[in-house]
Amino acid sequence: VHPNVSQGCQGGCATCSDYNGCLSCKPRLFFVLERIGMKQIGVCLSSCPSGYYGTRYPDINKCAKCKADCDTCFTRNFCTKCKSGFYLYSGKCLEKCPDGLEANNHTMECTSIVHCEASEWSPWSPCTKKGKTCGFKRGNEVRVREIVQHPSARGNPCPATSESRKCIVQRKRCQKEGKGKKNREEKRKKSNKDESKETRQESKGRAARRQNREQRENNNKTQPKKRKALNKEQNLAPVDTAH
């Protein structure tokens, strides 16, 4: 250590020298040695750099190196990220994963082997042949299932997701599309015609009932007047006194 120790240091140093850099750090900062060529100087940081872990002591906080195969670590014996070519498992960096585990090249970790899982089979489909369900005796029916869990690299592969088998149906003649369409159109027109006829009949019935009701109301209004006029005429008629 150079004997010229300064108290007015920069960059978080509590004490420093021109030759060695920081000699001690301010509270809560970590002291670490950085190599510059053949020379090492002390620096004070708020957190330890990659490849180091922090240790706190009453008099000083230091950054210590992780193991050679460890990129970042929590302590010297517990790694959190491994260097290239190693796989992380339980805080250790391994070149090969233990039995029952597989290497994940994306996360660079040893993970559990995942096997494929499929759902239950669906019911068999209707018996068909060339997309039709009539006009044949022998056809095929199929059933399917879905993959609910895809496998990892070393997991068991997925089974088939569809099955087909021969089937026999009672032979029936296919209804012609044109004829069937024509029949449906005729039925629709007839239904519309019947509905229109019923609607017209209902309308006529309502009109007749309304006319009868109005006529009764008019009769009820005019009958008192007629009776009153008749009574008046009877009272004014001359009395025949000649006998």
Automatic annotation (TrEMBL):
<dbReference type="GO" id="GO:0008201">
    <property type="term" value="F:heparin binding"/>
</dbReference>
<comment type="subunit">
    <text>Interacts with the extracellular domain of FZD8 and LRP6. It however does not form a ternary complex with FZD8 and LRP6. Interacts with WNT1. Binds heparin. Interacts with LGR4, LGR5 and LGR6.</text>
</comment>
<dbReference type="Pfam" id="PF15913">
    <property type="entry name" value="Furin-like_2"/>
</dbReference>
<dbReference type="InterPro" id="IPR000884">
    <property type="entry name" value="TSP1_rpt"/>
</dbReference>
<dbReference type="GO" id="GO:2000052">
    <property type="term" value="P:positive regulation of non-canonical Wnt signaling pathway"/>
</dbReference>
<keyword id="KW-0716">Sensory transduction</keyword>
<dbReference type="GO" id="GO:0016055">
    <property type="term" value="P:Wnt signaling pathway"/>
</dbReference>
<dbReference type="InterPro" id="IPR051514">
    <property type="entry name" value="R-spondin"/>
</dbReference>
<dbReference type="InterPro" id="IPR044004">
    <property type="entry name" value="TSP1_spondin_dom"/>
</dbReference>
<dbReference type="InterPro" id="IPR036383">
    <property type="entry name" value="TSP1_rpt_sf"/>
</dbReference>
<dbReference type="GO" id="GO:0005576">
    <property type="term" value="C:extracellular region"/>
</dbReference>
<dbReference type="InterPro" id="IPR043601">
    <property type="entry name" value="Rspo_Fu-CRD_dom"/>
</dbReference>
<comment type="function">
    <text>Activator of the canonical Wnt signaling pathway by acting as a ligand for LGR4-6 receptors, which acts as a key regulator of angiogenesis. Upon binding to LGR4-6 (LGR4, LGR5 or LGR6), LGR4-6 associate with phosphorylated LRP6 and frizzled receptors that are activated by extracellular Wnt receptors, triggering the canonical Wnt signaling pathway to increase expression of target genes. Also regulates the canonical Wnt/beta-catenin-dependent pathway and non-canonical Wnt signaling by acting as an inhibitor of ZNRF3, an important regulator of the Wnt signaling pathway.</text>
</comment>
<keyword id="KW-1015">Disulfide bond</keyword>
<feature type="region of interest" description="Disordered">
    <location>
        <begin position="169"/>
        <end position="243"/>
    </location>
</feature>
<protein>
    <recommendedName>
        <fullName>R-spondin-3</fullName>
    </recommendedName>
</protein>
<keyword id="KW-0358">Heparin-binding</keyword>
<comment type="similarity">
    <text>Belongs to the R-spondin family.</text>
</comment>
<feature type="domain" description="R-spondin Fu-CRD">
    <location>
        <begin position="11"/>
        <end position="110"/>
    </location>
</feature>
<feature type="compositionally biased region" description="Basic and acidic residues">
    <location>
        <begin position="175"/>
        <end position="219"/>
    </location>
</feature>
<dbReference type="InterPro" id="IPR009030">
    <property type="entry name" value="Growth_fac_rcpt_cys_sf"/>
</dbReference>
<keyword id="KW-0732">Signal</keyword>
<keyword id="KW-0964">Secreted</keyword>
<dbReference type="Pfam" id="PF19028">
    <property type="entry name" value="TSP1_spondin"/>
</dbReference>
<dbReference type="GO" id="GO:0005102">
    <property type="term" value="F:signaling receptor binding"/>
</dbReference>
<feature type="domain" description="Spondin-like TSP1">
    <location>
        <begin position="116"/>
        <end position="170"/>
    </location>
</feature>
<keyword id="KW-0677">Repeat</keyword>
<keyword id="KW-0325">Glycoprotein</keyword>
<keyword id="KW-0879">Wnt signaling pathway</keyword>
<dbReference type="InterPro" id="IPR006212">
    <property type="entry name" value="Furin_repeat"/>
</dbReference>
